[in-house]
Amino acid sequence: MNRQIIQTDLAPRAIGTYAQAVRVGDTVYLSGQIPLVPQTMELVDGDMEAQIRRVFDNLSAVAQAANGSLADVVKLNIFLTDLNDFALLNQVMAEYFQQPYPARAAIGEAALPKGAAVEMDAVMVLDH
């Protein structure tokens, strides 16, 4: 199995024993991203919308480092500490993704790393 580790300074560095993403063949597995600002490794300032946007921006940076984009995402997993933010998530997601949308799960969690309110991971398939 030929595994390629994906890493970029445009997304937060790993805060544990994992890679930002791993590519195997045409499939790229993007690790969970929380709303950390890459330059400071601190949570983004602002409200829940700012946190959601920062997570999508982080995922996008990792996708680009793998020579892809969010348009290549086939599966998106979303973890929220408050499922009341579900409607806001959908609103912001519509600005980052276009149809056909990826398969998706949204899961309520009691807590996320560093006190984040949202985390997302993804699977991307590249055909180039």
Descriptive report:
Helices cover 23% and strands 32% of the residues. By secondary structure, it is of the alpha+beta class. The strands form 2 sheets. It has a 6-stranded mixed beta sheet with strand order 1-2-3-8-6-7, with helices on one face. A two-stranded antiparallel ribbon has the order 4-5. A hairpin with a 4-residue loop joins strand 4 (36-37) and strand 5 (42-43).
Label this structure with key terms.
two-stranded antiparallel sheet, alpha+beta, six-stranded mixed sheet
How would you summarize the topology of this molecule?
Elements: E1 3-6, E2 21-24, E3 27-33, E4 36-37, E5 42-43, H1 48-65, E6 73-80, H2 86-96, E7 103-108, E8 118-125
Parallel strand pairs: 6-7
Antiparallel strand pairs: 1-2, 2-3, 3-8, 4-5, 6-8
Helix pairs in contact: 1-2
